[in-house]
């Protein structure tokens, strides 16, 4: 079986590599010549644990190749995945121009029956637009070639994408013919041997499933952050509340950790897109509008705590920031809470020294040289007035607080991810501020 994956971003590269890992012949295609040249050299455009080694292994085995030539790759493929970007427009809608351009290119080049699959996250109704592009391109050629369109949304967590693909919770496929179902069943058979379910459904339902899944997870995050903020006001401890509700199987323990808001490439974009889709069809997503509003406000909570602690006088103060990426195990800076916090600190006249294990180069695209980038977590602390923990990388979880206290100008920690023990830090003489718990140290007069 031969497949083509168009787009070598996060979804496309992981998808193509994981299919190659189970023995399928894969060509990954991108219009960016530099990106393809780098992939030939083993230089990946994204950071994802384990991916670099897997790419190298499958390229060496001849199962995985990279090209800018869409026409050549499409000629003999059985399945063509469209995995290009769908960036949000100013109104929140998903921009489909890249998806439809790829569909048009496939229609201009295909020689035999092919299942054309949207892997990108796309609004309900996109498959019909893809089908029309294919039909129009074939008509212009005067070619009578059968094809099917399918929807196969991805459910990959950045930082755990390989496991998510190879050992999926579920595989969702929207199809409109038995032939497409048979082809997709053969394609995914290697992933079903351990009992992972494949769920076939109509295409609009598959398209909706991805948006509904991400929106539900975003809702859990914003709900818990709302509860955390109320806990602080009422004197409750959100960590205890979380344990109390998480033991209810109907609620569960995942995605109920309070923090400083969600970011990344999926949740913000997908929530906006679903709100927009509903609006275009005369319906108002009231819950999701609230989810988005809470999340926007939550990204400023840590800064507000900093400002309150220092009496609003931040000019001339230095702040150490641990963590820049929107979550651990990725270099993704899209919609990262760190950007909101740092911009506000700079706007108030503060300076920032930041450290992140993998995201500092990516952060420079947004922050440039307006902050300093430390070689390690402790270098960031030198003479800083406070430490802000923004991303919960494992290496930040158990630092030597004795060293932290000596390097900081003042023993102040703002923990945006609740990874430390308030009682322990109080015992060590730190002013400790976290989310959803009253400060563990008396505020300065």
UniProtKB/TrEMBL annotation:
Pathway per the UniProt entry: Nucleotide-sugar biosynthesis; UDP-alpha-D-glucuronate biosynthesis; UDP-alpha-D-glucuronate from UDP-alpha-D-glucose: step 1/1
Segments passing through the bilayer: none
Entry keyword Oxidoreductase: yes
Keyword hit for Chloroplast: no
UDP-glucose/GDP-mannose dehydrogenase C-terminal domain ranges (all copies): 320-422
SUPFAM superfamilies: 6-phosphogluconate dehydrogenase C-terminal domain-like, NAD(P)-binding Rossmann-fold domains, UDP-glucose/GDP-mannose dehydrogenase C-terminal domain
Enzyme Commission numbers on file: 1.1.1.22
Protein's recorded name: UDP-glucose 6-dehydrogenase
Source organism per UniProt: Hymenobacter citatus
